[in-house]
Structures are given as C-alpha cells and as structure tokens.
Amino acid sequence: MSIVEMRVPPIGESITEVTLSQWLKGNGEYINIDEPICEFESDKATLEFPAEKAGKLIFVASEGDDLEIGALVAKIDTSVAAPAGGESTPPAAKEEAKAVVAESAAAPVAVESKSYANGHPSPAAAKLMKENGLGTADVKATGKDGRITKGDVLAASSAKKAAPAPAAKASTPAPQPVIASNFSRETSRKKMSRMRRTIAKRLVSAKNTTAMLTNFNEVDLTAIMALRKKYQEEFVAKYGTKLGFMSLFAKACAKTLMEMPDVNAQLQGDELVYHDYADISIAISTPNGLVVPPVHNVESLNFHEIELKIKALAVKAREGKLTLDEMSGGTFTITNGGVFGSMMSTPILNEPQSAILGMHTIQQRPMAVNGQVEIRPMMYLALSYDHRVIDGSTSVTFLVKVKKLLEDPVKLLMDL
Hints:
Blueprint: E1 3-7, E2 17-23, E3 30-31, E4 36-41, E5 46-50, E6 55-59, E7 66-68, E8 72-77, H1 92-105, H2 123-132, H3 150-162, H4 194-209, E9 212-220, H5 222-239, H6 245-259, E10 266-268, E11 271-273, E12 280-282, E13 284-286, E14 289-291, E15 294-295, H7 303-318, H8 324-327, E16 332-336, E17 355-359, E18 363-369, E19 372-386, H9 392-407, H10 409-413
Parallel strand pairs: 12-16, 16-17
Antiparallel strand pairs: 1-8, 2-4, 2-7, 3-6, 4-5, 6-8, 9-19, 10-11, 12-15, 13-14, 17-19, 18-19
Helix pairs in contact: 2-3, 6-7, 6-9
C-alpha cells in the first residue's frame, strides 16, 4: 500500500487557518490527479483543493472542521487501480446529465454494482434527499455503478408529490382539528462560517482600536438624476453598461482624496502612510457575508471602467470566486446601505483604512431652494473616520467637497 497525505497548503500570508466547508468526492471513491476533492473556506474566499495523486480517497477531516495550514485533510491510496475504463467516477454534473438523457430517451435502468458507489448519493443528491425527506429506499438509482444522482432524487420527489393521498375509510370518524400553538420555544444552533467569524473579529477590532467618529451631510441628487436620464441610453450603447450612482460617487471621492491625502492615509505603528492613488473598496453583500474588494486607481479611470470593474467584482463575489489578490488592499471604502432601504447609519471602518463613506436611500423631500419649497431627491451621507489620523475639520471639509461635486457633476466631468 502506498499512501499520500493531503495537507492544507499555504494560502496567503495572513491566513493561518481554513474551514473544510464540503467534500466534493466520497470517502473511498477513486479520484484522478488534480481532481478537486473538497472546498476550503478561508477568511476571504472559498478555494478548491485538488488531489496530488490518483487513487482511493480516504477521509481524515470532517466537513465543518477548522484546520490549520499543514493539517492533515485526507489520504490517497495510490496502490488502488482505476475502475474499468481508466476513469474515476464522473462528477455529479456528468451523472445528472446522463440521467436526464436516459429519462428522455427511455425508462431508466438501475445499474447493479458492488462498488462503493452502489446505492450512495452524490453530494448534490444527498443534500436534495435531506431537504425532501427521502431515504435511499425511496430513490431509484440510475447513475454509474448504482450511484444515486440528483436527477434520481428529483424524479422520486416529483413522484412523491404526485402520489394521491389514501382515501379515508367511511367508518373512520373525522379527525379532530389540532389547535397549533401561537408561539414556539424551539432553538437551534449553527456554526458561524469562517467569513462571518472573520467579519465579526474585524468589526470588533475596529470599534476597540480606533478613535472612530461619524459626520453627516445630505446631497441633492437632482443634477445626477437628470444627467443619467439624459445620457443613459447613449452610455449603454457605447459601453455596454449603465451609468450607475456608484461610479459617480467613487469618482467624486477619488478626486477629493487626491486633494486631501490625510483621508486617504493609514496609521501603521507611529507612522502615517500616504497614498498617491485611490484604491476604493466597494462593499458587496454576498450569501456568506459582506466583502470589500477594491477598485484600483479610481482617480485615473473613466466612469464606464469603474462600472465594469464593480460589476465584475460583484459577480465574482456572489459566486464565491474572488481571489485573495482581488480582496486585498484598498485605501478608502464606500458602502451603500441605501439599496436595502437604510435612511441613515454609522458605517464601521474597514481597517487599516482611516475613512469610509456610507450612502443611503434616496428620498423625495421638501427642500428650500432659492426661497421656494421644492421636492428634491435627497440622500444622507455619512463619513466615519479615525480621529487619530483625520481631524474633525478635515472630515467635514471632505464630505462638503464630495457633496458639491455630486450636486454639480459637470465639475466632476471636467475635473474642476
């Protein structure tokens, strides 16, 4: 027997531990070299772990385990030969595709086999079985070597739902209605994801180690709304993306950051580090938590370039495909709670940055304009800042400058 140990590889300088989020292959299953066997969840991203050798997979760690870099994850018995045909068990996606083709052409025929896969569900099928309350006896397997595929579970679930309810016997008295309780005392526990734990630690650290204050102002978005309405179609036709609020806000902040380097600085020990560029982190909500990948050199980008970069980062973030490099860096952050309806908030600093701008929902409010009351689209802005780095007067001036650029976007477009 020849055993190869699979250990957690080095992932990044700041990452010392990962969580085994899920196995992609079954215990005892034959795997090919470079085939992903499991997924790791780090502080910043989800990563696949490929097999170093071909052979039989032997689990050591379990799903949900926290593993340090170098910890043993699994073993591979390289003395085990590949199944007939020289290929490993196909991935779940291939099994599902075969099941669909078989069902559309003729009635599926279960394959009898004494292999490990016989009667075992694929990872996707197992999850679906649990959600639908099905056991292996309830599902007819059609996958290779008798494996239960996702298609098999869907078919069994549909049959279960379509099955007519048994007719009640005439002599059986009607059941008495059960009065449900109006409240519940049940509790449940679920381990926090690694990303959620990391977010919690960073937020507490920011509150405890920085002298954080927040200034507020409001901005009249009448001119920006008119600008977007007038040029939106031409903008989309030329660049293939819409002119959103985020690129305008990011550009206004970047321009002001170049004029006020203190807001763009970071405190490292007893030194202040200044930047001659504006790498603006954009807060993006994902199913696993908030991530803040930066758009680099916003001060030098055009509006459509900013929009396309934000869009690409948002797609990758929600699919869990952001790399560590894409998550690193940033000199200033913008977060938009307005998309969720937030009217006003105090955003928490994204360390080691010294300031963060909070955008909020746009509301039509009566405003005094040239001695007249007019209804205007208004947004509250919040700037949280580290008072150790940024003076109060500096923070107020920064917010006022950003406000003026947004209320007169022609100055922003002309770089005035």
